[in-house]
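Collaboration report, partner site 2.

Our partner group contributed sequences for two proteins of shared interest, and the home lab folded both. The records are reproduced in the order in which they were received, starting with the first partner submission.
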Amino acid sequence: MRKSGLLALCYATVCVSGCATRNESVDLDEAAPSPPNALDAELHDPTGRTLGRALVEQAGDSVRVRVEAVAMGAGAYGAHIHMTGRCEAPDFESAGAHWNPTRVQHGKDNPGGMHKGDLPNLLVGTDGRGSFEYTIPNATISGRGPNLLLDADGAAVVVHARPDDFRTDPSGNSGTRIACGVLR
């Protein structure tokens, strides 16, 4: 009887250990991070003051971008997604060039354009507020594909000093970079 009791105890231990191992692997799988389907960024001027925000979301096989100004001077400003997720003041050149995975020219009115990172102008009223929403077709935030936004060095949203003319390569004659936000 002692042998059968000891065997039963060993069998129960093996069963419980096997179950625990299976449950642990399920927990690990559930904890694996999934690719982001939404990113946001605070847009700062070179002094660090918050001028606005950007939200980027996956929408089917497209990427939807919303940019909002909350404290800018009245006027029209060029806005673009840039290919590097760095915003070092004072000039934000660290954000690199426009996101352009299809390697075309700049601007919706350019016969050789447009970059995936080309966005509408940001129109700001006298109250310092303005916004736009724009959908970039055939693009993904993360994962796989030829028009992938996030790579190893990230991406940023940049606002320029002047409006974009939507045709002049490479940046629509939109002037200096006055605000930048890293997409996270």
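Second partner submission, folded after the first:
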Amino acid sequence: MPFQRSDVDDLHRMWTEPEVRKYLWDDLVIPRDTVVAIVENSLQSFAESGLGFWMLNLKGSFRIAGFAGLRHFRLPESNYQEVEVLYGLLPDYWGKGLATEAAEAILQYGFQQLRLERIYAGADPPNIASIKVMERLGMKFLCTVNLNGLPAIYYVMRKSQFQADSGAIHGQDSQFS
């Protein structure tokens, strides 16, 4: 389900979890107001362009497992606005294929519903698990950039390269509700 204003407290708890914020927020403890702004931006972006973030809940559960979605971003030293897939899970859900499933569903949405031509993804170099997700999805290494004094690795996928395993994403095998 797309982010709702009622998700702010759950998102704040998740995004301030030490293991989550390590890579998502460069280990900063973000204030609740930042989460409110992100939720509001996601709602506005969905209305304007179809981009935004979804909550991830396992089937049969209302407990938050993570989030995934698309947002506009700009690579350093670029004049072009691009689209990036973002995903994150609480540590209890790591190593179960959920990030790959969620990111693949988001790529499918971006390429098929929004008709995007390319989608980017980035990660901190020590975040090997996220880099492996991008590689499992078939994304191709693009570059390493400096963001706020820290390195970030970017991958990209073009629409023509996307091969969705629709049974795993929307079929009975999906782990998300």
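Feedback sent to the partner group on the second submission included the following. The first helix runs from residue 8 to 16. The longest strand covers residues 64-73.
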